[in-house]
Amino acid sequence: MSEEHEDVKPLAELLDHPDQDIEQLMSLIEGFEEMDYPLPNLVGDSISLGHEDFKETLKAFWAALKEFLIGLMDSLTTGTATLRVANIQIQEVAETVRMEARSARGTKGPLVAGRHIQSLCVLYTPPKSFSDVINGLRGRRDVLSTYLNYVDKTVSTGIRDMDRIVSNIGTKMDPNTMKAISDVLYKADPSNALKYALRTTLDTNINHYWRTMCSSVHMLGNQRLMITNPVEAERYDLRIAGLSTLRLDRSALTPRPLPPTVTMQRAGISTMDMLLDQVEQTGNVIKAGLEVVGHRQRLLKQLIKSLEQFEQKASRQEIQGITKADVQSILGVSRILAQWSTSSFKSFIGSTLTSMRGAVALCEDNLK
To answer: What 8-state DSSP symbol labels residue 172?
Structure first.
């Protein structure tokens, strides 16, 4: 049974019992961490065009990389059914709360909220009012929209261009091919594509490499979207392909403790509506992001097919003028494009759903 089918089974069991608490769906989401696959080594002497065993060496190398790419491709859809249903469930609960608020009598006294505090904090600071949560959810949605636009358009374009370049490599290496590949890498690099959306926060020395760390604003759930890339990276230097990373990270290396409850002033119906509107709008962004996953999978599948044909020609040494560095760069750039296409996709959506549920729970508590 595939992982997708294994995911659908517990989901179907929940749907058979509509009175089940939505927390069970959220517990499924929490398991969607980034899938880990063995990463082939793209440096050193793993590939040598002059080696007598070059064909077998390249074949083994490609087998490992192919497994890695297929794993990334398959990971795009594993669990997305649960994310879709959780989004629908949260929207339904939000609409129910909105309707109940119309007939609810005003509750006196301060609101003491004790559910989903983690999902409503920004930089480990609990919200002091509904306005904090409204602004926080709006800010998280803005970063999520920017991220989804990047993976769905910018990186997808890079994968499509890479596939075209690789499939057009014939029996003689075009001297312009590697420059075209480096252009693809540069345009898709998150530190270039997202430089206006994320702000540079600091430079740091990691393992003797100076790297710049860029991040989004701190978001609800004590998270931020992080980009790490070499400060001194040359635009066309394919040797460092893959050093730029994009990931959803904690707001601080050492999380600060949070209070068990938060006390704030109760909100009126209009304020609750504003928060529930943010939940609805964020849900629409997630829905759109999940609908195009299949397109990204198809692009990756086609790239893998083109790379396999390239590997066969390279292993038979049928490409005149190609070098070891060319082979490494073609495979390496393809690998990093696939990683950028999938990195943090489900964890970002899953944690956003958790913050959405926290916002709805706050409205529920406001009516008690």
So the answer is: B
**pLDDT digits over 223-279, tens only?**
988 887 755 545 445 555 556 788 888 888 777 888 888 899 999 999 999 999 999
From the number of C-beta atoms within 10 Å of its C-beta (0-12, 13-18, 19+), residue 158 rates as buried
Scan for tokens 């669990």, then name that residue: 79
Q: Are 366 and 267 in contact (CB under 8 A)?
A: yes
H helix intervals, the chain? 3-15, 23-29, 54-75, 80-103, 117-120, 130-149, 156-167, 177-188, 190-193, 269-291, 293-315, 324-342, 345-367
pLDDT of residue 195: 73
Question: Average pLDDT of 303-320?
Answer: 88
Token pair for residue 367?
A: 């009516």
Give which of 225, 291, 279, 269 is closest to 80, Cα–Cα. 291
- CA separation for the pair 331, 310 (Å, rounded): 10
Compute the distance between CA of residue 303 and CA of residue 66 in angstroms, rounded to an integer: 10
- pTM summary value: 0.84
Torsion-angle region of residue 280: left (phi > 0), alpha (psi -120 to 50) or beta?
alpha
Whole-angstrom distance, CA of residue 354 vs CA of residue 61: 40
Name the phi and psi angles at 118, rounded to 5.
Answer: -55, -40
Q: If we measure between CA atoms, which residue out of 137, 135, 155 comes closest to residue 345?
A: 155
- Which among 147, 139, 245 has a CA at the least distance from the CA of 191? 245
Mean pLDDT on 198-214: 54
